[in-house]
Amino acid sequence: MTPVHQNRAALVRAGRWSFRLDARSLLVCAVLLVLTACAMVLAVGAGTYRLSPLEVLRTFAGNGPPGAEFVVLGLRLPRALVAVLVGFGMGMAGAIFQSLTRNPLGSPDIIGFGNGASAGALVVIIFFDAGDTQTAVGAVCGGFATAAAVYLLAWKRGVHGFRLILVGIGASAVLGAATQFLYVRADIGKAGQAASWTIGSLNARDWGDVRIGVLGLVLLVPVALVYARRLTMLEMGDDTAGALGVPPERTRLVLLCAGTGLTATAVAAAGPIPFVAMAAPQLARRITRAAGPNILPSAWTGALLVSGADLAVQRVTGSALLPVGVVTGVAGGAYLAWLLRGERRAERL
């Protein structure tokens, strides 16, 4: 287990609501926000038409170099914003699912919810020649349909973490097979379009994708934040949470819906970007050294991971064409190997 210490915290009350503000977590969120903003500015300035960070900021203010406004505001800024929005949503969803399952492997891309959103989007791409809006609707419907199926199959006098993970892994395998079947049935053009989307890419992102990401966060982040305190109580066990006045199953269902929605809108905006939802909460917990789900630090860690991966793609390869999902997949695989090695050395495996 990650070492945890007691941090200085303040309790803020607003009517019937109260929020516990942890000083170290707030500082971590502020630092992550600054680093994410720096990565975004550097990514916007990268490319064939290079711009310095100062020129990017001047372009934001409306007095940039000639021709920079179209490149920055029309082409590169939507991509950078989608990276932040998708990483933020995936990091928060990963924190919710890992807290609900009490397992670091309980992230939406491992237990099949991300695959469900991908399968829903692929159906509308391949069979209905869908645009951005239809793809987003398909991803959300696929994600929630998968969540409902996993929840019902895992139900046995309630839903518990280990059973949810096992059922979710099985659902992920079934959805993977269904995805391959969709490729076989599609014509070559649609199959190529679907294949490039399922890798997880920020290429050709536009303001429509930004709107999808913003809409998902505006609707679902408040729900996650309001229920964050209940999520902390659920980590102590259903009996303890019930004794403290928290209805375990209803709270779990609301958080499951919020996490699924965050995952589905992130997938709708940029495709399935692997391992961010799994790694972000673990990294956030190690940085904050705080108990609980660390929802906001995890969200900003996810935003930094995706923005950093996008910056690495452009700076290292000299091109923005490499899907960012390739970078996060390689880094996530290395992180998973390191995590398993640590568990083995601690004799928990």
Give the topology, please:
Layout: E1 9-14, E2 17-22, H1 23-45, H2 53-61, H3 68-101, H4 113-128, H5 132-154, H6 161-185, H7 188-198, H8 207-226, H9 228-234, H10 238-243, H11 248-270, H12 276-288, H13 295-317, H14 324-345
Antiparallel strand pairs: 1-2
Helix pairs in contact: 1-2, 1-3, 1-13, 3-8, 3-11, 3-12, 3-13, 4-5, 4-6, 4-7, 4-11, 5-6, 5-11, 8-11, 12-13
Structure description:
The protein has a two-stranded antiparallel ribbon with strand order 1-2. Strand 1 (9-14) and strand 2 (17-22) form a beta hairpin. The chain has helices spanning 23-45, 53-61, 68-101, 113-128, 132-154, 161-185, 188-198, 207-226, 228-234, 238-243, 248-270, 276-288, 295-317, 324-345, and strands at residues 9-14, 17-22. 73% of the residues lie in helices and 3% in strands. The chain has one domain (9-345): ABC transporter involved in vitamin B12 uptake, BtuC. Helix 4 packs parallel to helix 6, helix 4 (113-128) packs antiparallel against helix 7 (188-198) and helix 8 runs antiparallel to helix 11 (248-270). The protein is mainly alpha-helical.
